[in-house]
Design a protein that fits this description.
The complex is a heterodimer of chains A (about 220) and B (about 140). Chain A is of the alpha+beta class and about 220 residues long. Chain A has 1 helix and 8 strands, in the order αββββββββ. Chain A has one domain. Chain B has about 140 residues and is α+β, with helices and mostly antiparallel strands. Chain B has one domain. In chain B, helix 1 crosses helix 2 and helix 1 packs antiparallel against helix 3. The chains are: A alpha+beta (about 220), B alpha+beta (about 140).
Chain lengths: ~220, ~140
């Protein structure tokens, strides 16, 4: 059948040009879409890591800042932190890195809470332990036998305590605090991320935490 | 050829291209703003984290040596940012000057790693240190 002027359709060149333009547009669209998805994924991962870090910092910071901080502490007062506190706290928890033990005298008032936000004293102290295992930062008050995962994405917890001595300040590992380590001025706590979530996210997050308390004399 | 099969006029093609260009430009602008907003938020978070870290470091100094010592021993910029020559205060205790020097050098290194384009200034006003961190047209202050 000979095509008439009304039904002659498209020419091959017309089709090719149309296909080329279509492919170009689709290609650009796919590229843009891929870019948007990648950016969105990066933002989601970064936000997740940031949220995880915020949660970890909040729990650790609140406990470390307030540890024994509502009463004047003398060098002979060892109630604040391990090793006295460790006697009532878990020692074998499969921790990757150190275990941070924090204790408050139960007479410290309403601000003294364990890591789950409660006031359950054991042995005259409100105590909590923090450690990393199974990819999570976990906490356990001494009044409980189970632990609570607080924040995910971590492979290690390490830290040092700034200990006041007659000669100044000395950084001591939180796992090896001496028995006269009552005058802890603050902590330097480091959490190592399971994997770097983004180029600008450090593999390890360290922060100094000052302990609220009467200045050492 | 009758008027029914004339195809697209140049004007139609031009209009289509303009519409496509506007849509593409709008999409790109939205994407750029999204990225810029995310970067600003990230910078704000890092800046606040750095200033909090600085405050905690300085307060540890305060707790042992007092505010006057901290103000006298913690100038900005620090005398050195090279940690190799400084005491790490782990093997033996540090006095105020050594502790402050190491403290400030560590923080300066951290600042350079996390916010290389940020600028920091500090002036002492009436017994207070006034720290100002500027990054991405944002200013953060710390009085201590």
């Amino acid at each position: 059948m000979t095509p008439t002027a009304e039904n002659q359709g498209s020419t091959l060149v017309g089709l090719l040009v149309g296909m080329a333009i279509g492919l170009l547009i689709v290609g650009l669209g796919i590229q843009s879409l891929t870019h948007v998805i990648a950016v969105s994924s990066r933002h989601a991962t970064r936000n997740e890591a940031a949220e995880s870090q915020r949660v970890a910092s909040r729990f650790l910071g609140l406990q470390a800042r307030a540890a024994g901080g509502l009463q004047p502490i003398s060098l002979s007062d060892r109630r604040l932190i391990s090793p006295d506190a460790a006697a009532l706290l878990p020692t074998d928890v499969g921790a990757a890195g150190a275990v941070l033990n924090v204790a408050h005298p139960d007479t410290a008032g309403v601000d003294a809470l364990d890591c789950l936000g409660r006031q359950k004293a054991v042995g005259g102290q409100i105590q909590s332990s923090f450690w990393v295992s199974g990819g999570s930062l976990r906490c356990r008050p001494s009044s409980e036998t189970a632990n609570q995962p607080l924040s995910n994405g971590w492979s290690n917890l390490s830290g040092e305590a700034a200990v006041a001595t007659p000669n100044g300040i000395q950084w001591v590992g939180i796992g090896t605090l001496p028995t006269n380590a009552a005058a802890v001025l603050g902590y330097r706590l480091c959490l190592t991320a399971t994997q770097s979530s983004h180029d600008d996210s450090p593999a390890q997050t360290c922060a100094d935490v000052h302990r609220n308390r009467t200045p050492w004399r | 050829m009758s008027t029914k099969q004339q195809g697209f006029a140049v004007l139609d093609a031009f209009v289509a291209m303009v519409v496509f260009a506007i849509a593409t430009a709008g999409f790109s602008t939205a994407l750029y703003q999204l990225q810029a907003s995310a970067q600003t938020q990230s910078s704000r978070r890092i800046a606040l984290s750095l200033l909090d870290d600085l405050a905690q470091r300085l307060l540890i100094h305060d707790a042992r040596f007092g505010s006057a010592s901290r103000i006298a021993q913690s100038p900005w910029p620090p005398a050195t940012r090279d940690l190799k020559g400084l005491a790490n205060c782990s093997a033996t205790p540090c006095h105020a000057a050594d502790f402050a020097a190491a403290n400030m050098a560590e923080w300066a290194t951290k600042l350079e790693e996390r916010m290389p384009t940020a600028t920091v200034s500090m002036v002492v006003v009436g017994g207070w240190q006034h720290w100002v961190l500027t990054a991405r047209n944002m200013t953060f202050e710390l009085w201590l």
